[in-house]
Automatic annotation (TrEMBL):
Pfam families on file: Amino_oxidase
Signal sequence segment: none
Key words of the record: FAD, Flavoprotein, Oxidoreductase
Listed cofactors: FAD
UniProt: FAD binding residues: 15, 35-36, 214
Gene Ontology annotations of biological process type: polyamine catabolic process
Pathway: Amine and polyamine degradation; spermine degradation
GO molecular function, one term: polyamine oxidase activity
InterPro entries tied to this protein: Amino_oxidase, FAD/NAD-bd_sf, Flavin_amine_oxidase, Flavin_monoamine_oxidase
Flavoprotein found in the keyword field: yes
Name of the protein this chain belongs to: Amine oxidase domain-containing protein
Family assignment from sequence similarity: Belongs to the flavin monoamine oxidase family.
Amine oxidase domain ranges (all copies): 14-105, 168-428
Length: 476
C-alpha cells in the first residue's frame, strides 16, 4: 500500500517545516513530512539538564540589531522567547594558562592582533593562489599555548566562514543565547501551528509522520516513490530533501536513478563542521561570574583541547552549569570515548584553571552529532574563498527532487535563519516548477497520445524534449 501526496518533504528540521509552511500558504496542502526521529526540530534540540533546559544544537540567534531584521529573531520576539545577550569580546582577556594564571591583557591583545594579521595574510594568499599568482610571504603558524588557543577561537569560531559574513552584515553583529524552558525548538512548533493541526502544543496532523527513516528515493517521468526503513512506500509528484549535508555524504539515502556526477561531487566537496557543547553540572559555582567573565579560554599545547568555556549563570542564575565547546577532531575523539573519560579530562582542565579543591561535577551531557546517523556533523562549512558553483550544485534540483537545508543557503549556511530561509526559497522554486508543469500538462498529454497512437519506437525522445523537470532545471 502506498500513500500519495503532492509533495513529500524529507526531514522536519527548520528548513523542512518552513518549506512545508510556504507550500501550504500557497495552496499546496497535500504535503507529507517524513521525519526519521520521534520529534521535529533536527539540529534545534533542547534537553533537561540539572534543573534547566539546555540547547544541544543551535543555541544562539546570531545576527541581531542590524539594518535588516533577522526573521528568526522576529519569530522569537513573537513568541516572547527568553534570550540573553552574549558578549564574546572579553573572552580573549580571560585566557588561563595551565597553572591557573590569567595571561596579562597586553600579551593577550598582542597575540590576538598577531593571529588576526596572520589570518588576513593567509586569506590573501588563498586569494592570490586562486588567481594563479605566487605569494612570497607565508604567515607564521601558532606555536605557544596562547597562540594555539587564539588561533582556535579565531578559526573555529569567529572566522570560520566566508568573508564578509552576511549574517552580521545584513542582520547585525549581536548574538542572543536562547534561555527559555520551552526551548529554541518552540519556534518550529509555532510555525507548524499555522498549517498543521495541533492541540495543546502537540502536532496531531497525519501529514507529519515521525519515526520514518527514508532510505530510497526513486524518480520516474511521472513522479517520485519514497521508501522508508519500515517498508512503507509513499508516492508524490515532487520530493524536497532537507537532510543535512553530512547525511547526503553518507549512504543513508539512495537515489534511483543515481544522482548525477556534478551533484555527488559537489555534495562530497562540502566540508562538515562538528561542533560539540559539553554540559557540566556542579554543586556550586567556583568560577568568576562578574561582568565580562561569561566566556573564558584554556590555553593548552594541544590545539582545541577543552579551549572554549562558558558559564550559564547569566542565562540561568544559580544553575551551576559550565559548557565547554569542542570542534572537529576533538569532537570526534570525545564522541568515541565514554562520558566518564570525558568528565575526567574536563575535571583535570578545570583543576588546572581553578585549583585542586574544586568540587567534582555531578552530571555531564555529551551530545554526539557526528555519530548521529540522521546528522553526521553539526553544519556545513564552505571554503573560506567562496565557490558559488559548489553551492549552486548542492542546491540545484535533479528532476523532481529538490534540495533544501542550511547547506543550500547561499548567504546564511550554517545558521538557523539559513535553514529557515532556504526552506522558503526551495518551496518558491518548486511552486514555480509546478506552475510551469501545469502550463505544459496539455502539451504533455498531447504528446503522450501521439506516442500511443503512432507507437513511437523511441518515446524517450519526446520525454526528453518536454519533460517539465528537464525543461525547468536543465540538468536531468
Ligand atoms: C551543536 C550545534 C550548534 C549550533 N549552533 C547554532 C547557533 O548557535 N546558531 C545558529 O543559527 N545555528 C546553529 N547551529 C546550526 C543550526 O542548528 C542548523 O543550521 C539548522 O538547525 C539546520 O536546519 P535544517 O533544517 O537545515 O537541518 P536539520 O535540523 O538537520 O533537519 C533535517 C531533518 O532531517 C531528518 N532526517 C535526516 N535523514 C533523514 C531520513 N533519511 N529520513 C527522514 N528524515 C531524515 C533529521 O532527523 C532532521 O530532523 C548549530 C548546530 C549544531 C549541531
Amino acid at each position: 500500500m502506498s500513500t500519495t501526496a503532492s509533495v513529500i518533504i524529507i526531514g522536519a528540521g527548520i528548513s523542512g517545516i518552513s518549506a512545508a509552511k510556504e507550500l501550504a500558504e500557497n495552496g499546496v496542502e497535500n504535503v507529507l513530512i517524513l521525519e526519521a526521529t520521534d520529534r521535529i526540530g533536527g539540529r534545534i534540540q533542547k534537553q533537561s539538564f540539572g534543573d534547566v533546559s539546555v540547547e544541544l544544537g543551535a543555541g544562539w540567534i546570531a545576527g541581531v540589531g542590524g539594518k535588516e531584521s533577522n526573521p528568526v529573531w522576529e519569530l522569537a520576539s513573537r513568541l516572547n522567547l527568553r534570550t540573553c545577550f552574549s558578549d564574546y569580546t572579553n573572552a580573549r582577556f580571560n585566557i588561563y594558562d595551565r597553572s591557573g594564571k590569567i595571561f596579562p591583557t597586553g600579551l593577550a591583545a598582542d597575540s590576538y592582533k598577531k593571529a588576526v594579521d596572520s589570518a588576513i595574510l593567509n586569506l590573501k594568499r588563498l586569494e592570490t593562489q586562486c588567481a594563479d599568482k605566487i605569494s612570497e610571504e607565508a604567515p607564521s603558524s601558532p606555536k605557544t599555548p596562547i597562540e594555539l588557543a587564539i588561533d582556535f577561537i579565531l578559526h573555529d569560531f569567529e572566522m570560520a566562514e566566508v568573508e564578509p559574513i552576511s549574517t552580521y552584515v545584513d542582520f547585525g553583529e549581536r548574538e542572543f543565547l536562547v534561555a527559555d524552558e520551552r526551548g529554541y525548538e518552540s519556534l518550529l512548533y509555532k510555525m507548524a501551528e499555522d498549517f498543521l493541526f495541533t492541540s495543546d502544543g502537540i502536532i496531531l496532523d497525519n501529514r507529519l509522520k515521525l519515526n520514518k527513516v527514508v532510505r530510497e528515493i526513486e524518480q520516474s517521468r511521472n513522479g517520485v516513490m519514497v521508501k522508508t526503513e519500515d517498508g512503507s512506500v509513499y508516492e508524490a509528484n515532487y520530493v524536497i530533501v532537507s537532510a543535512s549535508i553530512g547525511v547526503l555524504q553518507s549512504n543513508l539515502l539512495s537515489f534511483q536513478p543515481p544522482l548525477p556526477r556534478w551533484k555527488t561531487e559537489a555534495i562530497q566537496n562540502c566540508d562538515v563542521m562538528v561542533y560539540t557543547k559539553i554540559f557540566l553540572k556542579f554543586p556550586h559555582c567556583f568560577w568568576p561570574c562578574g561582568p565580562g567573565q561569561e566566556f573564558f579560554i584554556y590555553a593548552h599545547e594541544q590545539r582545541g583541547y577543552f579551549t572554549f568555556w562558558q558559564h550559564m549563570e547569566n542565562a540561568y542564575p544559580g544553575s551551576n552549569i559550565l559548557v565547554v565547546t569542542l570542534t572537529n577532531e576533538e569532537s570526534k575523539r570525545v564522541e568515541a570515548q565514554s562520558d566518564e573519560e570525558t568528565l575526567e579530562e574536563a575535571m583535570c582542565v578545570l583543576r588546572d584553571m581553578f585549583g585542586p579543591t574544586i568540587p567534582y561535577a555531578t552530571d555531564i551531557l555529551v551530545p554526539r552529532w557526528w555519530n548521529n546517523r540522521f546528522q553526521r556533523g553539526s553544519y556545513s562549512n564552505y571554503p573560506m574563498i567562496s565557490d558559488n558553483q559548489l553551492q549552486q550544485n548542492i542546491k540545484a534540483p535533479t528532476g523532481r527532487i529538490f534540495f533544501t537545508g542550511e547547506h543550500t543557503s547561499e548567504k546564511f549556511s550554517g545558521y538557523v535563519h539559513g535553514g529557515y530561509l532556504a526552506g522558503m526559497e526551495t518551496s518558491k522554486s518548486l511552486l514555480e516548477e509546478m506552475k510551469q508543469s501545469l502550463l505544459l500538462q496539455p502539451l504533455l498529454d498531447f504528446t503522450e497520445s501521439l506516442t500511443l497512437t503512432h507507437k513511437n519506437p523511441n518515446p524517450q525522445i519526446y520525454s526528453n524534449v518536454i519533460s517539465p523537470t528537464n525543461f525547468i532545471s536543465g540538468r536531468s
